[in-house]
Amino acid sequence: MKFFVDTADVAEIRDLAATGLLDGVTTNPSLIMKAGRPFRDVVAEICDIVPGPVSAEVVALDAAGMVAEGRSLGAIAANVVIKLPLTLDGLKACKALTGEGFKTNVTLCFSAVQALLAAKAGATFISPFIGRLDDIGLDGMALIREIRTIYDNYPALETEILAASIRTSNHVKEAALAGADVATVPPAVLKGLVAHPLTDKGIQAFMADWAKTGQTIL
Ligand code: E4P
């Protein structure tokens, strides 16, 4: 499973990239607002730090506007992925931009049939939002499983499932079990994946016993 980080905070991205565990980045207009910096500068900086796919989202609502914005964002760096909303205009823009050789991420997916349409439009990634479905009492992970089954039924569909709106370590585990190709994870959740109280306890016990040996390794 590939790990993307879901943030536009360049310092966080730099920090996580240093672990060697980061395969890409996703941003959205709300994350750009939180970063409080010019959109294009942020995208360019992220693309310099992370060689993998970096999603940058259009804000036009009509297909022609999305295509124009997509071309402009795609010109920032070769690893920009143009993020488009799951509407008819978004799918039309996806088809057009894919045809021009751009990579695309169709976002705000909340149903399996939406994901089927995005794949037919040639999306590189489909982003089902797990957490936001859970928030309204539905089962976000069931959506990942449904999309996995549908895509596997039609091997000609090459779209990757990018599990989004992830809130917990358990979401990451369940998305991996369900066969998502990618998880985009907030920085705090990504860092939390490594933590286990028994790991910490084990290190403490080993260090205490090692100290009793009076030895050094170097
Ligand atoms: C995905 O690309 C989105 O940026 C993101 O995962 C949305 O997550 P949220 O529901 O926590 O805002």
Question: TL;DR?
Answer:
Helices cover 51% and strands 17% of the residues.
Report what the structure shows.
By secondary structure, the protein is of the alpha/beta class. The protein has one domain: Alpha-Beta Barrel (TIM Barrel). It is built from 11 helices and 8 strands. The protein has helices at 10-17, 29-35, 39-49, 63-74, 88-99, 112-120, 130-135, 140-153, 169-177, 187-192, 197-213, and strands at residues 2-6, 24-26, 54-57, 80-85, 103-109, 125-128, 160-163, 182-185. An 8-stranded parallel beta barrel has the order 1-2-3-4-5-6-7-8, surrounded by 6 helices. Helix 5 (88-99) links the parallel strand 4 and strand 5 (103-109). Helix 1 runs parallel beside helix 3. The radius of gyration is 20 Å and the shape is globular. The two termini are 37 Å apart. The model has no long low-confidence stretch (mean pLDDT 98). Erythose-4-phosphate (E4P) binds at residues 6, 26, 28, 107, 127, 129, 131-132, 164-165, 184.
